[in-house]
TrEMBL record:
It comes from Pseudomonas yamanorum. SUPFAM superfamilies: Periplasmic binding protein-like II, Winged helix' DNA-binding domain. This is LysR substrate-binding domain-containing protein. Pfam families: HTH_1 (PF00126), LysR_substrate (PF03466). Belongs to the LysR transcriptional regulatory family. Keywords: DNA-binding, Transcription, Transcription regulation. It comes from the Bacteria. PROSITE patterns: HTH_LYSR.
Amino acid sequence: MDNIRHVPSLQGLQALVEVSDCASFTVAAQKLCLTQSAVSRKIQQLESHFGVPMFTRTSRSLRLTAEGEQVLASARSILAQLKVLEDRLSPHKRPFRIRLHVSLAVRWLLPKLSDFYRNHPDISLAIETVATEVVEPASDSDAYILYLPKPDNDPARLTLFHESLVPVCAPGLGPLASVEQLAHFALLHRSADKQDWMTWLAANGARSLDDYRHIPFNLDELALDAAARGLGVAMTDLTLAAESIERGVLVVPFGQPLVTGGVYALCLQPSAASHPGCALIMQWFGLQARHANVTS
């Protein structure tokens, strides 16, 4: 019996990770769906097990001790290994997790999901959206879609479609048949830097950006909705506006699409390989990419 080695509680290790990440017992308790006193007890149990304090507490701060840092590193490693093991042994219990910009999800992926589930009813996709300009991969995602200024040769990335900028507006917003007539309307922007309109105007020999009236947004989705409501002319990617154009909600008043060289690409995380539906999912996305190349 003396050779039996007691190990720290997994719940205690989870509590340590959350308290460290949140720098707050209160917030960690909310995330763990526990009371603050319950989280404190779990940390105290860890401290009793290892015989050292995990945190240095003051009235204004909460910091890990040197020993707490070591336990935290091991806790993260243990929990990550258990997650990988769970996914490997019971992969059908979880969906394939994809992270992408909210406008891309609404304008490009969502209209295609009925086709995906019609062909793959046994595979579930979990869609996580972000509103930031750059889509950062998350540790719990299997794949993410991001914008690249130019294609690369990374084998873990699948180019979905190339960026082609076009002006779009509500049908009947006019007269609007040439670049010169843009001066009579507000330019709607999908990002604060106004880079899309700047690029398109320069390529089409138009006036300086300062000569126009502007209404900025932080999402393509908002800019396109504003355009459909007649607030002005939005600059967007042709692929993202395609469904609205097909439904007659938006029109391209004039000009040819401007190919910028940028691409939207699906990137796989290392965890994707353990999901049994990964190959079929990539095959489906590959079909969408080939369709985009044919229609562009």
